[in-house]
Amino acid sequence: MLGLILLTLTLLMLVECVLIYFNKNSNNKKIRKIALILIWINGLSIICFLLPVITFVILNK
């Protein structure tokens, strides 16, 4: 249950960072750079969370 909550929060943060990165009104390059770094971190954490789940499902078929 805790894993699902953490995954949901990570997905929400990923969406927020993508929206900040692709905001056309923001000309601040520093904020866009931080948002891009957070996108990569969130993407990697989602992949690291889902790899054991996918492996568990495949091995138990």
Task: Please provide a written account of the structure.
The chain crosses the membrane at residues 6-22, 34-59. Keywords: Membrane, Transmembrane, Transmembrane helix. The chain has 61 residues and is mostly helical. It has helices spanning 2-21, 29-59. α1 runs antiparallel to α2 (29-59). The protein is elongated, with a radius of gyration of 15 Å. The mean pLDDT is 84.
Keywords:
61 residues; membrane; mainly alpha
In short:
This protein is mainly alpha-helical and 61 residues long. The chain has helices at residues 2-21, 29-59.
Q: Mind sketching the topology for me?
A:
Layout: H1 2-21, H2 29-59
Helix pairs in contact: 1-2
Number of DSSP helical runs: 2
How large, in whole angstroms, is the Cα Rg? Answer: 15 Å
Which structural class do the helices and strands define?
mainly alpha
What letter string, H or E per element, gives the SSE order? Answer: HH
- Percent of residues in helices comes to over 70%
